[in-house]
Amino acid sequence: MQPNQLMDISQAGLQLAIQEIKEEMFDTPQCDYTIAKLLSHCGQFAAAERHIDDMLLKWGASPDVIDLTEQAYADMAALSAHTAAQATLHIAQRTPTFTQSSAVA
Q1: Pair 47, 70: CB distance under 8 Å
Q2: pTM for the full model?
């Protein structure tokens, strides 16, 4: 299967998951928070951030919504840092190391 087809399938699966969340949780701030968290888990940080911003605009600045918004941003920051660390580790493992013995040969 070609990479573009895999991405399309992944996007379709993500949209299906989002639809399921909406059907199960209805239209609530917790639903929006859960969708933003899912987007973050899928590495779609920009979409998650837009969803969080929309959540705040949609539901206002009640203490519960502010708490969910702050938690969503914290979750997103933690997942983003974890993803960056994993990428750095992966690159470090794939980069050949230069040693003195290989320079002499």
Answers
A1: no
A2: 0.72
